[in-house]
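Exercise: predict the fold of this chain.
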Amino acid sequence: MDFKIIGDVTAIEPIAVGQGIRHRRRLRKVYGKGRWRKLRGIATVRLVDGTIHTAEVHWYEAHGNWTEGVETKTSAAGLSMTKATRFAVCTDNKGYAASLSVGKLYPLIPDGEAARHGYFRVIDETGEDYAHAAKRFFVLRVPEALARTLGPRRPARVHTSRALQGT
């Protein structure tokens, strides 16, 4: 994982179950069949830069077993939703095979707070924007005309959570 959960995860609730999970087919392909559900909760986490924060964490499970793909949502405070001209190629998806594909190009969403802690916000395979460790990507800058072609096909969902805000 790109962070370490310190202590218990609290306020756990399901976000989606069964057919409500948009990329259920990918989860089954990567991790196998099961009654999949996507959950969220609040946890204290240690980020890659060593700082400790309260964060909303998301994960998938089937039959009560946690998968490797625990992900954090990050704060969207001050997020500028201008057209992306920066993209990143995923070079490492270990632990996030359901969310990232090695060799795939992802639009980078500007997020100064995530960047200060060593993360990039990308629109991953879930179709939502999540923060992943910057070390998982190789960044590319492209001309605006190419960015329009490569960019997301639909607007990014911006999440306003408590993650990456100091505790």
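Check your answer against the key: The longest helix spans residues 24-31.
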